[in-house]
Structure formats: C-alpha cells, structure tokens
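[Automated response] Your request has been received and processed.

Submitted sequence:
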Amino acid sequence: MKQVLFLIFSFLLSATWATAQEYSNSVALVSQSDNLLVVDSKAVGDRKRDAQEMALKSAFHCLFYKGVAGYNGGKPLLQKDNAYYSERFFSERYAMFVGNSTVIGDIGKTVDKKRYACTMRVEILIGSLVRDLVTEGLASKPASETSMEETDEAIVLPSIMVVPYKTENETYRSVIQKNSDKRSAMVKVQEMFVQYGVTTIDLEGQLDAVYTSKEFNLSTARSAEKNVITRSGADVYVTVDVQQQGTSEMGKRVKVDMKAYDTKSGSILSTTTTGWTNPIKNVDVGDLCIMAVKTRMSDFMRALSTSFAKQMQGGKTISLRIFKSKAGKWSLDSQVGDAGYTLSSVIRRWVKKHAEKGRIHIKGGVNELLWFDTIAIPSTDEDGMSMDAATWGDSLLYYLNQELRVACKMKFDGTAIDITLQ
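Generated structure:
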C-alpha cells in the first residue's frame, strides 16, 4: 500500500512540475536552412542550469505552439497536439534535436534578484524534427518535400495550358501557323505533361473557338488571345521556346526554354533551360525537344509541385467583380439588413471572412462597381471537397439572394466571377 501511495505521489509531483514549467515566447530567428534552424531563446530559472534548460525547451515550445517569425510563415509547427508525445518530448526527447547550443552573454539575476535570466543560441535539427512530427501525424510535410502524387491526393492538380513563346508583336495563332518547329515543340511538351498526370487544356482548340466566333475581329486579336488564357480555366500556362542549330542532313540539335506562370497573378512558378542535345540527322524537332526536356522535366515539375503544395496550404486565388445593372433596383450604396449597412460594406466583410486567412485586395470600389482583383480562397470546403471559383461564388450568390434578399445574377469565367445586381 505504501508503495502504491509513493507511486501516486511521485506521479502527482511530476505532473505538477510539468504544468509549472514557465516556457518563454521570447524566441527570435537567426538563420535557417532545410536541415538547420538557429534561434535565440530567452528564459528564466531558479538556478543558472534551470534557466539554460528552460531556454532550450522554450525554443521548441514556441516553435510548436506559437510559431517563430520568419519560419513557416510564423505559424505553429504543430497542427494538432498529443499530450503523450509532448510530455515525452519536453522531458527528454528535445535534446535529440539540438545540434549545438551556447549561452549568449552572462547569466544574470532577474530584476527582483530572485531568479536567473539566460539567452541561448540554439541550433535545432529542423529537418529531423519535422520528419519526426510528420511520422507521428502531428504536422504535415513541408511544401518543398511534397511530391506531385501527394499533392494530387490533397487537391486536384492545377490544369496547364502549353503555349509557344512569342514576341509582343506576334499572336499565338501566327506563331503556330508560321513556325512548325515551335508548334511541334509545344505539342510534344504538352504530351509530356499528360504523362505526368496533369490535365492540359489545348491552346489550338481554344484559339479556333475565338477566331471562328461572331464577335471576333482582327483589330482585337491580341486582346482576344490574352483572354483565351485567362478564361480557359487553366491554373498555369507554360511558355515553350525552342532554339535549333544545324540541318537535317548534317544533324540538328535543339535547346528548350520553359517557364510556368500562374494564370491569375502572372508570377513565375517554375523555369528551366535545357542544354543542347547531341546533333541527330533526319529527326523531327519535336522529338529532339523531348530528348532535351526529359533531362530537366523532373526538376521543372518538382518546382511546380512545390508551388502546388503551397497553393494547397495557402489557398487558390480568384477575382470578383460586382456590377450595378442600368435598370436594376439594387446598387452598392443600398442599405441592407437590420443595421442598415451599405451593400458594398456587407459584401466586403463577407468576402474577407470567407477568404483564406482574410487575404483579399480591392482594386476599386464605386457605386457602380466593386472589384476584388485578388481573393485567396480555401483549397477545400468544410467537407474536405476541392474548392474552386464556381463553388465559392455559389456560396456568395446564395448569401446575397437568400439571406440578404438582394436579387442578382452570377457569371463564371475560369477564375473570374462577375455578379450583376438586378
């Protein structure tokens, strides 16, 4: 019986000690790499040794539960907690992930002279730590280590449109018609994306639809072609440029440049330039392009994979415009709801609330038009289903029509949403 009571007392004493740990959030980033994170951590303790130990533990505690500015977007590393893991980690395992630690300055007394204050420079083996957390199911794999296959399981891979490189004064149509080598290179690269399991949208099919439409005219050809990309629904477009030397009889060789752009923002997601292929006689330029691109495709796709994973974690981007119709009853200055806020104000609040981490940018707002040129939307909805512009727009339309009783219509075009007040 005495032994049982002693064990119970020891357990309670241990639990009381664990809960009494005074972790500090005073942790600052010094430097980082894929495998090493260096921080300065400050803490206090009853003895000098206690202050040093608490500074080490506080570095991990802050990293886990609060986040360190400059690393992981300042977000906590733990996505969910496990009491058993945390107890074991902070009692003994944390030391496994410390590469080196040194005291900065002197360990001095606190202001009240009752305790000691210490600042430690701590080298955290962050690569090993993250892998440990991922294995335990407490954190997700970093974007840079997420494969295309893993990204595909989480969200639908962004669709890609492959286009030939062109100058400012050219059109895609003219390049395709006049330069058979560039067309061949474009087609072959598109086939390679298909082999990687990526959904591709055919440029030539989209161009045919534009050039044969009743609204088309030559004076607006360039702007019409630009809209082909933005309205195609492709999340990414990849430009392909091919350079060649030699002749079919003596042997040709090629070099290929590829750049992947985010369709919405125009930012570069991935880029590569291949080396020159070996000269080969009597071979199609497109086949030479495959030989060239194969040597770089893995790295090119890995960069895209990282961007896709970041998109998965940070949300997709769309645009939204809300118009007032000429004969409509509602305007953006109309008062709605019991509080009498303007419709423009209510919409801005709803959009910000339903954007990923509130990330929006308003390009303009007047009585006739409210324009959000960038809205980050979640990658998935509350049920874990993939979220896209149409689904997000339907939620806004329901809010306006059913909850606010504001009559309006929505038009969806790729990642662009237009809502017209009636």
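Summary generated for your ticket: Residues 1-19, 152-156 have pLDDT under 50 and may be disordered. The longest strand covers residues 236-247.
If you did not submit this request, please reply to this message.
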